[in-house]
Design brief:
The complex is a heterodimer of chains A (685) and B (524).
Chain A: H1 2-8, H2 14-26, H3 30-33, H4 37-59, H5 64-101, E1 107-111, E2 121-125, E3 134-138, E4 147-157, H6 159-162, E5 168-171, E6 178-179, E7 184-194, H7 202-211, H8 219-248, H9 255-265, H10 268-287, E8 290-292, H11 295-303, E9 306-310, H12 311-315, E10 316-327, H13 333-344, H14 350-363, E11 375-378, E12 386-391, E13 394-400, H15 401-407, H16 417-428, E14 432-438, E15 441-452, H17 456-465, E16 469-473, H18 478-488, E17 492-494, H19 499-511, E18 516-520, H20 526-531, E19 534-538, H21 543-548, E20 551-553, H22 561-598, H23 616-640, H24 649-681
Parallel strand pairs in A: 9-16, 9-18, 16-17, 18-19, 19-20
Antiparallel strand pairs in A: 1-2, 1-3, 3-7, 4-5, 4-6, 4-7, 8-20, 10-15, 11-12, 12-13, 13-14, 14-15
Chain B: H1 2-9, H2 18-41, H3 58-69, H4 85-115, H5 125-150, E1 160-164, E2 170-174, H6 178-187, H7 208-232, H8 236-263, H9 266-270, H10 288-301, H11 316-327, H12 338-355, E3 363-364, E4 367-368, H13 371-395, H14 399-402, H15 409-424, H16 439-468, H17 484-520
Antiparallel strand pairs in B: 1-2, 3-4
Helix pairs in contact in B: 2-3, 2-4, 2-16, 3-16, 4-5, 4-6, 4-12, 4-16, 5-6, 6-7, 7-8, 7-10, 8-10, 8-11, 8-17, 10-11, 11-15, 11-17, 12-17, 13-15, 13-16, 15-16, 15-17
Classes of the chains: A alpha+beta (685), B mainly alpha (524).
């Protein structure tokens, strides 16, 4: 449900735009704008020009029409910057509203004596629950608040937060005990001990995060703001002193043109878009169903050097699948396949089904007629670890190697050398061998393999090109782990990994100055999740894990760690590219304004009017208009982010420099010229 | 000898953090200032004063003492007619060594911030100072001085010699311990000449060969600094990238100046002057256009400030290059030591702006550039425009500033701009034309020199302290590459655009419009 809402929030929703326009005006309040020094200076400048315009109006001096237009466009500059921020926030607010609808006032069944089995409860509002209260939740009930299941087991529909409609099981004890307020119990019942006070539940925190209520400047954003403020000061010096230097040359510059020069030079483009870029970065994660607890975490994701990936589910499919048949001499592959096929018909485990699939796919076998009375299936059982079929007197079996040997009444050493060889070959490569027997005859071995996802090697290669190391974490023994590691193309692996191993691996890497990302769901993952620079907790995991990480993945899909890193990088790249663009823009603005300011005193300076702008006033006005419009033009880019491709840093830099550096130099020359033509045609200046 | 000096002064060589290092440096320079100021004020009663000069006036003493302590060597006076041999040798020459040694020490300390990982200590100021002076500056300048003598530069304690010229007239020719002064003046990128005419004077710079030697001596240490940086941080490519950036500017700048000078002045050509020689006004015939152009660019790219031609007489475009190079902060390749830490600050800024474009928070050589470093870097970068443009704007409006001008129109503005740029950039070369020995100019230029040096150094050292304490992140394919042509291009772009944005309006009203006026045939 939620994810549908999220995905439908298009880049420019008309409802969001409407609110954003209103918010843009409200944000003119200087107290709020002071957070953003560049735009604050712009607003001050706009106020100053407006005051000068009023003075000119009253005293009927100066060029009222000109300073009025400059003033208006300066106000537009501020409004456009506010609008960018408001649009980014608006998209978050739309999502927060969707979440808030799930937080309807629920009635909770608070148990009076939780320790006993008599289920006596009093109905209270969910808002009156306190941490420590135990509530009963039965089929059809909404879970009133976050908590831990202390007794019972039930299936829960968590689509309100994950968007995934398949129910999940929640039970007391273990790693599946956390429940989230706002989700619905579908069947059975359990008792939940409330862990979060009203207003501080998971959903509440998500709403706050999505809305940006707790938004603080991230470290890099802060550093960038300082750079922008510093540049603003430098240009302030350049513009204020220009008044003196111009005075020497016999030009009295008016306040209006000096202010216009200042505003076009200070980095208003990036200054106006900076916070929108940050909000949009978190927003992109949310669209991806990952919620970051802080912007700092998103930024850290871009810096990650090492990814700690769980093998199961991320690198491999999680189930062992049959991949090959290794017959002993005297038996053909086809014969072995047929026997294995028959023996697996009664095996409903994923392994058994994978054998059937392999036989059908690669050997063209069809289901035999199993309706005859001679056909007697022997289903797989965990105690015998064997499945098979008896057809008349013929008995076909397949199963774990030692179980099969036992079945044919043979000690391991007595088995044919070819059979033992095949078993060894499979084990050495990290696979699992299954024996196949027809009567007392050993036919061969089925190779079961932990199958690596087909595209994963490619993705790891891409990560390596980005300078990111991948480390596989698995509970397998070192032999199996090494085989899978080399097949998947990871850089390193931790075999037989305990939570302590993960933690110490992370600490070691961090000591060397590296940044680590990992994901986890169990309570024993919590210390490592907390230690990692980016810790993505699975929504399906325990409360402890969700508290420890700095991101929560609502889809509980560990592969997403890779995308999280990419989103982090995209955020940083967008910031850098627009900063470069903004600074590069200034060159053209100088060539528009400087000749315009002094052409009366020194007509020769007209040589610097490279764009051939029609008049000095038109030149200044065009530069100011361009400066305002470029903010609007770049909002989509700020929200969508600069395209990221997993290539090396040099290639990325070359590409972005070309587009945003060189583009930043050239675009304003063209833009200002076009605006000048329009301004001249409309006789605006 | 090193231990002897250490014992004599009783300083320890214990490691210092950035605060103690900087405080030691400031205390040492304050003492140097007081000593030099005292020496000049008491010149009249002290020995080794063959010409019998009286005390140097207060404002001039203040200006000169700051000038030599800050490695600027701006001279509002004529050396041969103001300073006794004692002041020249014990005061000015000593500061020539010490200010250069201070620069080297600071550059080494700043480099250590990148070379070391996770430590607050940046070395020991006294140790670095003594080693720089004793093992680098002193031996090379002794050799240089001997070569200068061999080329005909005088080295004597005699104040002057009276000769009878061919026409039979008597002429007094100033002499002195010139060769030893000349050696350290060039080597330490000081630039304060023994004579008023500086390196255009035949005793300071007798021949084409001595001119080459001077250029080499100016360049050698500043050019070596980036290589030292590369070695200390364990990656020589990093130093090479900085070096290439510096020399790219130097070579292109020389080209522009030479082209502009060789094109000559169309106004003079229209008056019937043969333009084949180019613009030879203010240049020595024994050096010619090419060597004058090279010298002018090197001396300004370097913060040396020695001159062998009058920069005021350069064509407007030829004059823009030296002026702009000074305004870029003396990093191309800048003064001894100061050039290195100057360009490193810009490198840090470059990495911060462009580094984000590779999708990582920026780091330079594995040291993260964060809010604190940015704050300090912006503080350092604000100093130059504040001082240069601020003082210039005031001087361009008040009578005390305007009365010293020799020229009206844009050229006068260029004179003012050049003076404050030269002082704040710790260059010390003069555009000439501006009479700077007034209370207004002596005082404000003194303040400009002081701020240009120390108000820059303190935040710079604070950055060193902050970076040194950080762990060095190992480089990977995802790291921002800070060697190779792309970084050279990027660094050059930032230097040019950042510098251009700050000074373009001022330059447009000075030399640029002057150039356009010259083309249009207008004079003032």
């Amino acid at each position: 449900m939620m994810s549908k809402i999220i995905q439908s929030a298009a880049l420019f929703d008309t409802a969001i735009l409407g609110t954003a326009v209103k918010d843009a005006v409200l944000k003119l309040n200087p107290m709020t704008l002071a957070r953003n020094p560049v735009i604050f200076v712009t607003e001050t400048a706009a106020a100053l020009v407006t005051a000068l315009w009023l003075r000119d109006m009253l005293m009927a001096s100066g060029n009222v029409w000109f300073s009025g237009q400059i003033g208006a466009w300066l106000w537009f500059t501020v409004l456009f910057a506010n609008f960018a921020e408001a649009v980014a926030e608006g998209r978050g607010k739309a999502q927060a509203d969707a979440l808030r609808r799930t937080r309807t006032d629920t009635v909770a069944k608070r148990l009076v004596i939780p320790e006993t089995n008599d289920r006596i409860f009093s109905k209270v509002s969910a808002l009156d629950l306190n941490p420590g209260d135990v509530v009963l939740v039965e089929a059809g009930d909404l879970i009133p608040a976050d908590g831990e299941v202390v007794e019972g087991i039930a299936s829960v529909n968590e689509s309100a937060i994950t968007g995934e409609s398949a129910p999940v099981i929640r039970e007391s004890g273990g790693d599946r005990s956390a429940v989230t307020g706002g989700t619905t119990v579908l069947s059975d019942w359990f008792k939940v001990k409330i862990t979060a006070a009203p207003g501080s539940t998971f959903i509440d925190r998500m709403i706050a995060l999505v809305e940006g209520a707790e938004r603080k400047k991230t470290p890099n954003e802060l550093a960038l703001s300082i750079l922008l403020a510093g540049m603003t000061l430098i240009f302030l010096i350049a513009v204020v002193t220009l008044w003196g230097l111009a005075g020497y040359s016999g030009t009295m510059l008016s306040g209006t043109v000096l202010v216009a020069l200042l505003v076009t030079l200070i980095p208003t483009t990036i200054g106006g878009l900076l916070s929108a870029i940050g909000i949009a970065g978190m927003d992109r994660l949310i669209r991806f169903n990952v919620i970051a607890t802080s912007g700092r975490a998103v930024e850290a994701a871009g810096d990650v050097d090492t990814l700690l990936l769980d093998k199961t589910g991320t690198i491999t499919y999680g189930n062992r699948l049959a991949t090959a048949f290794l017959p002993v001499p005297g038996v053909t592959e086809k014969e072995l396949a047929e026997a294995a096929f028959l023996a697996s018909l009664a095996d409903e485990t994923p392994e058994g089904r994978s054998i059937i699939a392999l036989c059908k796919g690669s050997y063209g076998l069809r289901e035999p007629d199993n309706t005859t009375e001679f056909f007697n299936a022997v289903p797989f059982s965990a105690t015998t670890r064997i499945s098979g079929v008896d057809i008349g007197t013929r008995s076909v079996r397949k199963g774990a190697v030692d179980a099969i040997l036992k079945h044919v009444a043979m000690v391991a050493n007595a088995a044919p050398a070819a059979f033992r060889d095949a078993v060894d070959r499979v084990s050495r490569t990290g696979g699992t061998p299954l024996g196949v027997a027809d009567g007392n005859r050993l036919l061969g071995v089925i190779h079961l393999k932990d199958v690596v996802k087909p595209d994963i090697k490619h993705r790891f290669a891409a990560l390596r090109a980005m300078g990111i190391r991948t480390v596989m974490v698995t509970g397998d023994n070192p032999v199996t782990a090494a085989a899978i590691a080399s097949e998947a193309g990871v850089d390193d692996f931790i075999a037989e990994a305990t939570p302590e191993d993960k933690l110490s691996y992370i600490r070691n890497e961090q000591k060397g100055g590296r940044m680590i990302a990992m994901c986890g769901d169990g309570t024993n993952d919590a210390p490592a999740l907390a230690q990692a620079d980016v810790g993505v907790a699975m929504q399906s995991g325990t409360q402890a894990a969700r508290e420890a990480g700095n991101m929560v993945d609502l889809d509980s899909n560990p592969t997403k760690l890779i995308e999280v890193v990419e989103i982090g990088k995209q955020l940083l790249m967008t910031r850098g590219s627009l900063t470069t663009f903004s600074i590069a823009n200034d060159v053209a603005k100088y060539f528009a304004i400087i000749p315009a300011l002094f052409v009366v005193t020194y007509p020769e300076l007209g040589a610097l009017n490279l764009m051939g702008l029609s008049s000095p006033q038109s030149a200044i006005l065009s530069a100011v208009i361009f400066n305002a419009l470029i903010i609007i033009a770049l909002i989509p880019l700020a929200l969508k982010g600069v395209a990221y491709k997993p290539v090396g840093a040099s290639a990325l830099l070359r590409r972005n420099l070309l587009i945003y550096g060189l583009g930043g130099l050239i675009v304003p020359f063209i833009g200002i010229k076009i605006i000048d033509i329009i301004v001249a045609a409309l006789h605006l200046a | 000898m090193e231990t002897g000096i250490r014992r004599l002064y009783g300083f320890s060589t214990a490691e210092q953090d950035w605060k103690s290092y900087t405080l030691a440096m400031l205390a040492f320079n304050a003492l140097g200032f007081l000593f030099l100021y005292g020496l000049m004020r008491l010149q009249g009663v002290l020995p080794l004063n063959p010409q019998g000069f009286g005390a140097v006036p207060e404002a001039l003493s203040f200006n000169t003492a700051i000038s030599f302590v800050t490695n600027t060597n701006w001279q509002s006076y004529g050396g041969e007619s103001t300073m006794s041999n004692l002041v020249q040798m014990m005061g000015l020459a000593v500061q020539n060594f010490l200010s250069a040694a201070t620069g080297i020490a600071l550059a080494v300390a700043f480099t250590r911030a990148f070379a070391r990982s996770g430590t607050a200590s940046l070395g020991n100021f006294w140790d670095d100072l003594v080693k720089s002076a004793l093992y680098i500056l002193l031996p090379i300048s002794i050799v240089l001085a001997i070569v200068y003598v061999a080329m005909g530069t005088p080295q004597t304690l005699q104040g002057s010699v009276e000769v009878t010229t061919l026409e039979g007239a008597k002429q007094v020719i100033a002499l002195g311990p010139v060769a030893s002064q000349e050696a350290i003046k060039q080597l330490g990128t000081n630039g304060g000449g023994f004579f008023n005419a500086n390196a255009a004077h035949p005793f300071e710079n007798p021949s084409a060969w001595s001119n080459y030697l001077s250029i080499f001596a100016m360049l050698v240490l500043s050019a070596a600094m980036p290589f030292m940086f590369g070695r200390m941080v364990g990656d020589e490519r990093q130093g090479r990238a900085l070096f290439v950036t510096m020399f790219l500017f130097l070579i292109i700048g020389t080209g522009i100046v030479y082209w502009s000078e060789a094109s000559g002045n169309p106004i003079l050509a229209s008056l019937g002057l043969d333009p084949v020689m180019g613009n030879m006004e203010g240049k020595e015939v024994r050096f010619g256009l090419a060597m004058s152009a090279l010298f002018a660019v090197v001396t300004t790219g370097l913060s040396c400030g020695a001159v062998n031609a009058m920069h005021s007489s350069l064509t407007p475009l030829g004059g823009v290059v030296p002026l702009f190079f000074i305004q870029l902060g003396e990093i191309l390749p800048g003064g001894v030591g100061s050039g290195l830490y100057g360009i490193l600050i810009i490198a840090v800024l470059t990495v911060f702006i462009a580094g984000l474009m590779v999708g990582r928070t920026p780091d330079y050589l594995g040291k993260k550039i964060e809010a604190k470093e940015m704050k300090l870097a912006m503080l350092a970068l604000l100093i130059l425009p504040l001082v240069i443009l601020g003082f210039s704007a005031v001087a361009a409006m008040i009578p005390a500033g305007l009365s010293s001008l020799a020229n009206a129109g844009p050229h006068g503005l260029s004179e003012i701009l050049y003076a404050y740029s030269s002082a704040a950039g710790n260059n010390g070369s003069a555009f000439a034309g501006l009479y700077a020995n007034t209370n207004w100019y002596n005082t404000t230029l003194g303040i400009a020199m002081f701020l240009g040096r120390f108000a820059y150094i303190v935040p710079m050292m604070a950055i060193a302290g902050s970076l040194g304490a950080k762990t060095r992140i190992p480089a990977s394919k995802g790291s921002f590459p800070t060697h190779g042509p792309m970084f050279v291009g990027l660094l050059s772009g930032v230097i040019l655009i950042l510098g251009g944005l700050q000074y373009f309006p001022a330059l447009a009203l000075g030399p640029i419009v002057e150039h356009l006026l010259m083309l249009a045939g207008k004079t003032f």
